[in-house]
Amino acid sequence: MDLSEFEYRPENLPKDKTENLKFMANLREKFTAEVLENEKLKKYMECYQMADIERFAKYVVDKKMNLLHHLDWLIRRHEYTPEIKYRKEAEKTIELIQQKKLFNIQCLWRANQFEHPALRCTYDFFFWERHINDCPFLDPVSIEDIQLMQAFLRKPDVHIPERYMLVGYQEYDGLLKMEDDEYIHMPPWYTLYDEYRNTGNLLKLPDLRTQHEKLLMDALRKEEQRKEKENPKPPVERDKRPYFYEHKQLIQYFKLFEKDKHFLEIYKEDKIYMKELETTNDDDLDLAIYNLRKVKEPVYVDGGKDWRDAIKEAAQRHINKMVADDLDLLYEADAMFNELGISTSKEDLTDALNEHSGFMVKRLKQGALLLGIEPDKYW
Q1: I need a labelling partner for 128 at 20 to 30 A (CA). Which of 115, 173, 200, 229 fits?
Q2: What whole-number distance in Å separates Cα of residue 266 and Cα of residue 67?
Q3: How far is CA 112 from the centre of its chain?
């Protein structure tokens, strides 16, 4: 995969967060126009029913933006060094500290025990999950947070990082799902944090916000159904063309209509990676051996275990050790920036937040007005 001349490599993008957001928004518009103005694609879609080119354009552009979002990782599969890898893992680990703090705030917010202008509806938490470093109401990572995470990483019983979570870091219902009186999807880090900080009681708080949002949305849907009955739409003649399924046609789009050769390479690389994840091979074992080959110091393997498990655990212990050590460096660098007066302030993402969940806030407000309820002050 040669992307040396690809204009959207991570190092070619604006470093300033505000400028980066503007650049990405303009890029999204450019990609969208390319799809909407593609006459060959329009003719191709005429052979299908339910083929909405605007909706498909959004689907294609979302995929391309997602590929760019993960491009740094795809490139590192080919170009990374162990030192860069551990530093990136340490940065992700600091983000994991903040994800737990955000989830605790979510529990408080749902119980009406916390409020902030950047929290208007439950949907907002998915936005801040993706922009955790710019979340305006989270306290900075403290030295106590770093020490607790280091203790977690250095525990003798190996903890695999939460990269294979079945639910998101802020997926409230999924994280609180229980079987046999245990949270089956709760990340080990969240559990340890609650044990040391005595915050497990937050998981038991009532979810009043969801009840309120359901009440408002139900009222709005009933009103929309009433209007639809009063003004029924005329019957539509049955279309005999095959259905246009976006997820299937996405493959065809990259085969037939994508003109950027670099995007074609990235898309192929992404498909290879996804296929690797679906295979029955022990990818974790292959990755563990790959990582251990690059280690220059002795790494000891526990006896009395299946050799595969022993190798995977030894590799993970080494990674955890390297990441734990790097956390000190990252924290010291941040402290140095503050001491020198170099700004590490968070970006104001109000506009991006409104674009993400403004439609939901608008619908909730409409439901409240229908019921004669005072809308939330942040709506």
Answers
A1: 200
A2: 7
A3: 25
What's the pLDDT at 314?
A: 85
CA 285 to chain CA mean position, Å = 26
d(CA 68, CA 25): 13
Residue numbers of the chain with a pLDDT score lower than 50 = 164, 280, 340, 342-343
Q: How far apart are CA 165 and CA 186, in angstroms?
A: 9
Question: Could you tell me the CA-to-CA distances from 100 to 97, 103, 246, 284, 367 in Å, in that order?
Answer: 6, 5, 35, 26, 32
Query: What kind and span of H or E run contains 183?
Result: strand 182-183
CA distance 362 to 377: 13
Quick one: 265 and 377 in the same domain? Answer: no
> What tokens does 85 get?
């890898």
**Cα distances (Å, whole numbers) of residue 6 to 11, 34, 64, 124, 260:** 10, 18, 14, 34, 9
Q: Are residues 125 and 14 in the same domain?
A: no
Whether residues 84 and 66 share a domain: the answer is no
The pLDDT assigned to 33 comes to 93
- Cβ-in-10-Å burial (0-12, 13-18, 19+) of 191 comes to middle
Q: Give me the pLDDT at residue 342, please.
A: 47
Range of the domain at 249: 1-78+243-279
Say what the pLDDT of residue 294 is.
78
Alpha-carbon separation of residue 148 from 188, 254, 316 (angstroms): 13, 46, 18
Residues 192 and 114 in one domain: yes
Indicate if 102 and 207 belong to the same structural domain: yes
Residue 103, token pair as written in the block: 């989830």
Residues 152 and 196 in one domain: yes
59 and 138 share one domain: no
52 shares its domain with 190: no
In the block, which residue shows the tokens 């409104």?
Answer: 354
For residues 49 and 46, what is the distance between their CA atoms, to the nearest angstrom?
7
Q: What tens digit of pLDDT does each residue of 34-86 get?
A: 999 999 999 998 888 878 888 889 889 988 888 888 787 677 655 555 555 67
**Nearest residue to 271 (alpha-carbon basis) of 70, 54, 133:** 70
Comparing CA positions, the residue from 319, 1, 357 lying closest to residue 163 is 319
Q: Within a 10 A sphere around the Cβ of 291, how many other Cβ atoms?
A: 19
pLDDT, residue 164, reads: 47
